[in-house]
């Protein structure tokens, strides 16, 4: 399999790298400069209409959002189920921990940034 991921140094991208490393996967890293608006290039928007990173290309199967990518990698490439057990409650706890950033941390961060910006 050829796995490539659009990358920068954001925490979501690093989470995908750590997951791949735990699984022993090699990712082709394609650098994306958000400051240069690489994510808005037509060829990238064609792959990912949300133009976000990370974006994973697994032999033409395109997935974006770090949470979805990590679950996909663990489900497809893990040799056992220790990282993503079958038990629904255990999976729910994993999802709860995964989505801490989007459900609590990121909205708080945005409120702080907006408050400084509006000064």
UniProtKB/TrEMBL annotation:
InterPro entries: Glutathione_S-Trfase (IPR040079), Glutathione_S-Trfase_N (IPR004045), Thioredoxin-like_sf (IPR036249). GO terms for molecular function: glutathione transferase activity. PROSITE patterns: GST_NTER (PS50404). Gene3D superfamilies: 1.20.1050.10, Glutaredoxin (3.40.30.10). Pfam families: GST_N_3. Residues 1-81 form the GST N-terminal domain. GO terms for biological process: glutathione metabolic process. This is GST N-terminal domain-containing protein.
